[in-house]
User: Which sequence fits this backbone?
């Protein structure tokens, strides 16, 4: 499949995943572009399981971007600004969404990179063996990561 | 009664495992209130996460595929390179400059294509590990050979490694800060395995005087095989 067609097919799913991972829609959009740039420059041709490959590359990029963002202490500020700069609309609805985002960020920040990745890929409909391939681990470990992540979330959401 | 662990409960929630495994777990949950309660808590956390994520999601923007914009620190070298290119083109037309460049190039060309010399500390064959000094690694293969190939793989670790397999006595590896030299001969039959970190921006493979092959490592665990046999072989 042509690069443009692959972009149209996977763009929105990748964007949603990256926006959830990084908490920043602008960063997510850049990372989608960077992911497809890597695909375009890939010397080995289009991978057999292209969706898994795209999400694996996007995960690595998101991890690096997240680290950099945390170092600068900007994550919370960006998450707050993002709602006002990207999504014009009803102020009350924006306020509520910003509050939900803060809640989501707080919950996801409590998870390790692998726990967060496993749970977010699960939300994208990935099977355990596909998540294992993205994380470079076993399906057994994916189950452990998910169980640990969900248990942490349960404690956070219902202290 | 032996309780089931959370991993098994998550697998059950996600429809993973065999039908037999799921039926066995379901039967256990029917008779174990403690496990059923834990299953309920995990399912509730999972539902709540989905709900929160959906509510927090932004609508995907209508963006098109594009080349990423140059970052400021990358834009300056690009501008400088453009200026150098223009100046070089202009000066190349001046005969004295051209003859000077040709003279220098002859020297450089001789150095680049001189028979590779093994460092006294570098034993032929074997394996080496090293950390490339920058984000571009040049792999220079002295010549095409009778048999064999170069297998390039990627790794998430920062360390690159190279190995000569089925080595004769005339192959060797030489590590320079940004370069790996494979010292071989036209009669060599060795295979070389090179593992490069994904942090590298580019790997440039030069075989003899052929045009370079550019490889951009992206994901750990990928591989590419380059045939090193002579191009005009029967």
Assistant:
């Amino acid at each position: 499949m042509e690069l443009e067609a692959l972009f149209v097919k996977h763009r929105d799913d990748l964007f949603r995943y990256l926006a959830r991972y990084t908490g920043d829609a602008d960063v997510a959009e850049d990372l989608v572009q960077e992911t497809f740039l890597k695909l375009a420059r890939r010397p080995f041709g289009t991978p057999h399981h292209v969706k898994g490959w795209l999400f694996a590359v996007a995960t690595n990029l998101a991890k690096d971007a997240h680290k950099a963002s945390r170092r600068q202490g900007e994550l919370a500020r960006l998450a707050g600004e993002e709602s006002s700069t990207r999504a014009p609309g009803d102020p009350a609805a924006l306020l509520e969404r910003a509050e939900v985002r803060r809640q989501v960020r707080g919950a996801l920040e409590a998870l390790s990179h692998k726990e967060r990745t496993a749970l977010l890929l699960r939300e994208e409909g990935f099977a355990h063996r596909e998540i294992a391939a993205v994380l470079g681990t076993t399906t057994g470990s994916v189950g452990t990561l998910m169980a640990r992540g969900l248990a942490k979330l349960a404690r956070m959401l219902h202290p | 009664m032996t309780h089931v662990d959370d991993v098994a409960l998550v697998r059950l929630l996600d429809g993973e495992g065999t039908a037999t495994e799921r039926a066995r777990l379901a039967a256990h949950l029917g008779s174990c209130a403690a496990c059923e309660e834990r299953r309920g808590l995990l399912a509730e956390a999972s539902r709540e996460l989905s709900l929160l994520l959906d509510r927090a999601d932004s609508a995907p923007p209508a963006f098109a595929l594009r080349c990423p914009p140059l970052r400021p620190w990358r834009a300056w070298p690009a501008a400088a390179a453009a200026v150098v290119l223009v100046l070089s083109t202009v000066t190349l037309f001046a005969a004295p400059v051209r003859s000077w460049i040709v003279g220098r190039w002859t020297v450089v060309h001789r150095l680049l294509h001189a028979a590779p010399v093994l460092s006294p500390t570098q034993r032929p064959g074997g394996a080496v590990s090293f950390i490339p000094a920058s984000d571009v690694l040049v792999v220079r293969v002295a010549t095409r050979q009778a048999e064999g190939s170069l297998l390039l793989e990627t790794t998430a670790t920062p360390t690159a490694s190279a190995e000569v397999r089925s080595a004769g006595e005339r192959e060797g590896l030489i590590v320079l800060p940004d370069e790996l030299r494979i010292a071989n001969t036209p009669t060599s039959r060795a295979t070389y395995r090179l593992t490069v970190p994904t942090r590298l921006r580019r790997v440039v493979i030069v075989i003899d005087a052929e045009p370079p092959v550019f490889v951009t490592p992206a994901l750990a665990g990928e591989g590419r095989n380059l045939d090193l046999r002579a191009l005009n072989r029967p």
